[in-house]
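Batch manifest, entry 17 of 40.
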Amino acid sequence: MITAAICGAEVTRKDTPYLPYTPQELADEAVRCRQAGATMVHLHVREPDGTPSQRAALFAETVALIKGAGCDIVIQFSTGGAVGMTVEERADALKLQPDMATLTTGSVNFGEDVFVNSPPMIRAILARQRQFGVTPEIECFDSGMVDAAIRLMHDGAIAAPGHFNFVLGMAGGMGASPAHLDFLRTLLPSNATWSVAGIGRHELPLAAHAIQVGGHVRVGLEDNLYLRKGVLAKGSFELVAAVVAMAQQAGRPLATIRQARELLRINVPARAGSSI
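Output type: structure tokens
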């Protein structure tokens, strides 16, 4: 499975002119990523001037445009939003019932800021996910977040074994090396699924390692701007295509949408299909 993280909350058009902002731009990029081989899109939204937002209306418009284009990609909302947002802001769009949404299970230094996820905040977001039947993707920036998620499973708050995404290489979080990733894998519940998102120059090397050891991959402009040293990716779709080439070389087949939904334990439509 390949997840395309196409926008994020930190990157701006000062960093890359290829970053999508508007619902139409986000939808167009999601379609391009699906055509390139992605099975899931990780969505943040922006105001027209690029300001990070969690407004449900922007999520709704973006999703309608994706589906209106006949695109069957799995849709995952961010509940991280941007540093400093309240839990209410971060979780409001869950009422739209996306296929999945992120759940970060701990706080982490985030560059010069702190991405705060206290236990009450985590439980509040998780409660909203349960209320609207949204499957969580457990976001882990460090090993303690895996432990926290497993405690929530033991308490019955998260259905085991879960799907984890390891975000590695963020300043303040766990380092981005194959050794770090391999250690995190040893902590997971039996039969859990996992993906990795390497930050910056670590994105594609960690993707290659994940493919070799049986994991899944997240790539996109949220995490990394460059296709190779000094060459900006013209969109997240180019990074998806690079991972597709790695998978083909390694003999790892791409998941279909139905297979991805089954692996992630989210609803499988009675009738699937799209030309995109």
